Amino acid sequence: MYKRHCFNLSTRDVEDLMAERGIAISYESIRLWCIKFGPKYAKRLRRRHQGYGDTFFIDEVFVNIQGKQHYLWRAVDQDGEVVDVFLQGRRDGKAAVRFFKRLLRVSGSEPRQIVTDKLRSYGVAHRDVAPDAAHAAVYNLFNLGRHLISANHYRFSRQRALASWRNAAAL
């Protein structure tokens, strides 16, 4: 499951990788493992997370699910770590307030600054939820900013991320 979540492989890709190593398992079993164990690993990783940056970038996109339009709200910190992703059926003030409350709960602290695309609903949420502020688990662990750091520091950070993954995955 580590390879599936860390490297964005399909369950069929993981099935092929396992077959290459002599392990016969169906992609459906891998999918069921991801459903069963994924949330547990994510919870453990969030508990051990070092914290997010103090600037959040928030945006929403339109997505169609079974022909019905929904809104996918997403917050990312200044280092590119996904703080939270939230799917809702509305794009109004109530939806923004719900997302902001969830964002503050997930992040564990109020950001120093929140950058938005000036959607009016954000103003409502800002006034209701974060009056004194200026405004996702596995991906964050391995999003190391390879292009921003030296190779030695990247290797060290990757080893630390792998150790954190092993600790979260230990049952």
Description:
The structure is a single chain. It is built from seven helices and four strands, in the order αααβββαβααα. It has helices at 2-7, 11-20, 27-48, 93-107, 120-129, 138-142, 151-169, and strands at residues 55-65, 68-77, 82-88, 113-115. The protein is α+β, with helices and mostly antiparallel strands and 171 residues long. It starts with a helix and ends with a helix. A hairpin with a 2-residue loop joins β1 (55-65) and β2. It has a four-stranded mixed sheet. The longest helix is centred in the first third of the chain and has 22 residues, at 27-48. It is globular, with a radius of gyration of 18 Å.
What's the SSE blueprint?
Blueprint: H1 2-7, H2 11-20, H3 27-48, E1 55-65, E2 68-77, E3 82-88, H4 93-107, E4 113-115, H5 120-129, H6 138-142, H7 151-169
Parallel strand pairs: 1-4
Antiparallel strand pairs: 1-2, 2-3
Helix pairs in contact: 2-3, 3-7, 4-5
Largest sheet: 4 strands, mixed
- Per CATH, the class of the largest domain reads Alpha Beta
Low-pLDDT sequence parts: none
Helix-strand topology string: HHHEEEHEHHH
- What is Rg? 18 Å
What portion of residues is helical?
40-55%
By CATH, the architecture of the largest domain is named 2-Layer Sandwich
Distance between the termini: 14 Å
In terms of DSSP E residues, the strand content is 15-25%
Total count of strands: 4
Overall 3D shape? globular
Mean pLDDT score, rounded?
78
CATH topology of the largest domain: Nucleotidyltransferase, domain 5
Alpha plus pi helix count? 7
CATH superfamily descriptor of the largest domain: Ribonuclease H-like superfamily/Ribonuclease H
**How many distinct folded domains?**
2
Overall SS class: alpha+beta
Strand order of the largest sheet: 3-2-1-4
